[in-house]
Amino acid sequence: MKTRFYITTPIYYPSGNAHIGHAYCTTICDILARNKRLRGFETRFLTGTDEHGQKIKEHAAKAGKEPQPYVDEIVASFQKLWRLMEISNDDFIRTTEPRHIKVVQTMFSNMLKKGDIYLGTYKGWYCTECEAFWTDIQAGPEHLCPDCHRPVHEASEESYFFKCSKYVDELLKAYKDNPKLCFPASRMHEMVNTFIKPGLQDLSVSRTSNDWGVTVLENPKHTVYVWLDALANYLSALGYGSEKEELYKKFWEDEKTEIIHIIGADISRFHCIYWPMFLMSAGLRLPDRVFVHGLLKIKDEKMSKSKGNVVSPYPLVEKYGVDAVRYYLAREVTFGRDGEFTPEQFVERLNVDLANQLGNLLNRTVSMINKYFNGEIPAYKAGVTKFDTEIENMILGTIKQYEIHFDDLQITEGVTDAMNLVARANKYIDETAPWVLAKENELDELAAVMSHLANVLYVAAILLSPVLVHKANEILDQLNVPTSLRNYQSIQKVGVIEKFKVNKGAQLFPRLDVKAEIEYIKGLMK
Ligand code: ME8
Fold it and tell me: How far is the CA of 486 from the centre of ligand 1 (A)?
């Protein structure tokens, strides 16, 4: 059983401002990290930026800047966005930092010493955007990059190569032993059938044509290939190879830690093939999971900076609030599948789930407790109405299900569990019709309904707190839940919410004017 977690996002290219696709991956990782911490697990959450390579240098040149000041500015905007979105990363790694560069050089030197890297000449098709070399077959007759479909150019240069062939069998065995090393399974099949079975060529791991990178100490006219450089971030951020290796020992070396890399489908080849091979070469433990999430598209096209069809998360967060955007990202796009960003669905999710379901449940519950019980949550009594046992079982069942889903990285399903509980409680109001109970003076039943509702809201708020980082607390504030009960341990027992004086607050999520808001968001997408 793993009791500690190391969760990482890809480190993004600072070649343009972050778009909602980056925000998607980072937010999901944040929700996962907050979920683990909530449940009492020691967790380290890493994100950062991938700042070297030809592509960054070209973008900087286009902007009339040197690469370092160019990336400094964009990295600052990424960091600002993560603060705005309440991303709780424990560290932010930049590949231009000395602590990172040292690790890349050490890994490269060790690979050379071990004979896993040799000097040769590269001839092939190069895609500058993807920083990847392709073979004749991969580039096809039209000479297009198989990933981004842009034209590739013929390149030939002296290069160091990593001996992939040496590690192929070990990699296939690792896939067999741990199907989560590349998950979902369809991604692993893709790795095996598209890349490994046709014959994996040795990987070119240095460049002489690009000087914006980590220098190869043994041969300084070479810089380390950006992907070897970038992947090493997961180790360098833990202080691997430095005098201070405590974090590395705790969060990588120790088998009690579950190492989880979350990445998009576009970079699965690098994480599921080359990264495990580099680790094998270094004699280090492999990650426990590489989870490949789907991509957010706009009108069926992958959203990407280079295509210019991006949605910026800034105006969305500013207008609708950080919790609404976080919720949308976690709930709307099933984690692991592709999804489409549409203004219609965005507004509908906010209205239906957050305003109508969650906001209304709180509003109705607090209003009724004010009206019927002078603002005090009645003492908890089980089994008074014929629905009470079902509600209690559902509360406990939801908590279990939520844990199973989160442990399995089924984040969308975990969030849905909590929201199903909310929906059930709204139905419970209709079934028990408290206004009728009040009229008929059935005070015992009325009290039971109110305390059950308060308890459902309490549990839902704690379960949703990794997503709704502000609003979960607002729910608990309105129920006047003391700080000592605002934790995961306390929700394991049903019925702890009683006798608190409720505080009616502002509407949790205002209902949006559908037409106006859709128009507004469409405007942002132009
Ligand atoms: O590839 N939908 O950086 P990158 C969902 N530096 N997620 C998206 C997305 C979209 N439309 N677009 C991007 C790189 N992403 C390398 C990574 S890691 C050692 C080096 C997310 O800036 C998704 O997670 O192109 C994807 O894998 C990542 O951003 C790529 O970001």
Answer: 35
